[in-house]
Specification:
The protein is mainly alpha-helical. It is built from 13 helices and four strands. Helix 2 runs antiparallel to helix 3 and helix 5 crosses helix 10.
Amino acid sequence: MSELYKQAQSKIPATISLPSHWLKSYEDFVTKNASAVTQIESTLRSLTYIIPGRFRESELASETLHTSTLLLSLYHTSLLRRHFPSPFPPSPQTRYTTHYTTRSRLYSHSVTLLQTIQYTELLCEMFFKRRGGDKARWRLVVVLEIVKAICRTIMFWITGKRMVVEKSVMGAGERPQIPEFSESSAEERMGDAMVVEDDDGTRKVKEERSKEWTMPRTGMTLPVLPTPSADSISSFLSARVISADDIKAASQLVRKIGSAQGQVAEMMWILRPVLYALAMQRLQGARKKDWRPWLLGLGMEVAARELGKKEATERTMGGWRVTGLEKEELKRRRWGIAWWGMRGAFYENVTR
């Protein structure tokens, strides 16, 4: 009996190390077959358009597949970004998010949790509605909105009371471009050499005159100019233009909200989904067409936007230039007001 106990005890460390070994093998597979993994993800997303209506509860199965694919893609993207740093300058969204995720673990966890909830909330709502009806569904919605509001509040305070940029959260999963090694790309990398094939099928390397011009004094080479056309020259030059946002520090891509008015506006924008969900929970069922929750949510959205606009105008007059990242976030929030036409009482009474 004691020998069996000792044998089982000796096998425990090897058994515990198996999951990490499997995970390492899976990571190696993903990094070595990045293109194939991306195609598989695209195929799985395409299945979500085919499954609905095919069998009983197909909508739930389709949403489960879609959510699982998004989460798996999020993991693959983070994995590839660690192994393949992008050779191109990162976007402002990526720079801004990376700046804070690398400096604050709490900020990084908040971004990950917020993104995970945004990917899975619809599936959770469908599941709870099937199991417990609208009552259970709205309880879940309230809990999820409270967690999301906590994550946004943490991001707001850690960034030094800066505007919460949702685009940076959704853009945190930008996948780097993986270099493809093929015969055609190899021929392009050869520069002044070209592979040709003779009549007998043998492949030979034909030397051509180098298209790069070497400066006689410094020895530096100048790149090949594009084909002379208005569009190609414009795109060639615009790709090498450095904007003001490119040379700014990542933390300066979004301004600090210094006034109490602006901070109140941002907190109103963060808390508006929570109050709307609480109001809808109280007026569920037969009173679903009640206008009060809809007016409360829309009123808070408009009030937060107007207060924020006034504070931003005062800062602009003081010399602050609105950055591209701020413009994109403000534009996204303006479009968010239009989505109120598909919510609550307006949808039940007008849109529907």
